[in-house]
Amino acid sequence: MNGYNAIAKILKKENVEWMACFPSNPLIEAVSEEGIRPIMFRQERGGIMAADGYSRVKSGKSFGVFACQGGPGAENAYGAIAQAWADSVPLLFIPDGVSLMETDVKPAFWASRNYERITKWAESINSPERIVPLMRRAMHSLKNGRPGPVLLEMHRDSMTQEIDNLDTYSIPEESKVSPSDEDIFEAVGQLVNAKNPIIWAGQGVLYANATEELKELSDILGLPVVTTMPGKSSFDERNPLSLGSANRTAPKSVWKWLGISDTIFAIGSSLTKTNYGITIPDGKKIIHSTNNYEDINKDYSVEIGLVGDSKIILQKMIECVKSEFTTDQEVFQKSKMKTIDQIKSTKKEWLEEWSTLLNSDMNPINPYRLINEINKNIDHENSIITHDAGHPRDQIMPFLTSTVPASYLGWGKSTHLGYGIPLMIGAKMAEPNKFCLNFMGDGAFGMSGLDIETSVRSGNPITTVVMNNGTMGGYPARYPQSIEKFDTIKMTGNYATLAEGMGAEGIEVNNPEELKGAIIKAQQLNSEGTSALLDVKTQPELKMSTYEELLQN
Q1: If 292 and its partner were Cys, which of 78, 146, 174, 546 is the partner (CB 3.0–4.6 Å)?
Q2: pTM of this prediction?
Q3: Are residues 185 and 313 both part of a single domain?
Q4: What is the span of the domain harbouring residue 239?
Q5: SS percent in the chain: helix, strand, coil, step 5
Q6: Are residues 108 and 52 in the same domain?
Q7: What sign has the CA pseudo-torsion 122, 269, 474, 538?
């Protein structure tokens, strides 16, 4: 048994069922011998993105795995790992590597060293005896602390030798921590005594399987909830206390309550400032709960820091409210009903403002009409939706209703075009009975469109909605001369035809009346095992759901 066989057997022990890969790595054959299915993608980034999507839908309880060749394969993978690192997604990256004796010979690419800044843990197998302990450390890192990609580079001179210590491998367990009862009491007391407290919920709530606890704490204290972009779906947006999700665009209620709030309880969030989110206004008291102590006081000054597992912390806070603040329950409920009425009024006002675009009969089709038709014609509890970078993200995030956990995959502290297609392949691997749809522009399609063929070949039918507006949205103001003289951002193509050539069914949508039927047909095709692409002729739209003036309250 050589090193590749040993790693394959460890992956089998860890209940890994499939592995994304491209194009060459001895581990591909080794995992096949163990009954682990390798799925070949059309590029390295696509394989990693699919592993990412799988991990997100599984909330880290199972993790995606990707293997590629050393050198150019590991080099090409860099962008996708950077995205997973930015969004704190646990996945295992196992590139092949040159002989350890050659890693310092330029221009050899030493993956474990080059990836140190964008992985949670990165090491090289530098002797055959260390394969088992290094795999144990890699698995421990995947399962504990703040999630992130983990890299183990397989140097050929160590991997091809005989391995005789596999029986020493033991499966690492997840270790959970929580703050003291005194810290919990202090945090609850600050929330109870605040005038306008709100909850800011991140994807840590999803990874901790704490959505029910979040709902209960919100309910008993009457606290409205904002979710982050990665945290979207951690709180049902049909709940009357839901304000919506905060991308750099958001429902009006998000902007309003971020403005009027005096105290923010952030749970399962890094509170990282990003160009693709809303910065919390100055002057707020912040209670920050995260499983990574380095996040606290990083970008914001924090009143109270609570380091630990989101589920345990929420459970302790609920217990504290019920045991220590029993006489305040009636006050909490009266305040809750008032807050619900205010949220309902604000959302009604916001949707009325957007009604013209959401129901527009413009032709070419307005993007908001397309989003509204998707929102009205899917089974939310049995669907997984994601955006792509740029305008598709900014337009769909405020208006697509997320319901159950992982019904929407929000991503984007880094914004790699084309992420949506492979992400949904991974989601489909995790939830084969759910309808998986990615919403993208024509620019994003160019980055990963060929992996529609991967969805067909691998038997993971997904739906891709392409806004075919013939341009790169949001760029005209930046390139007036280059556009006027050279049509710099003009794009052309029939993406439905391209999809047909890859074995999917392409559906052209040329007017608003065709949208509903096309969305329903795509769901039917997916249920029958066929991938679908909706090539929707849309117009550029610059209006976004932003209300920055409301942050000044």
Answers
A1: 146
A2: 0.96
A3: yes
A4: 181-343
A5: 45, 15, 40
A6: yes
A7: positive
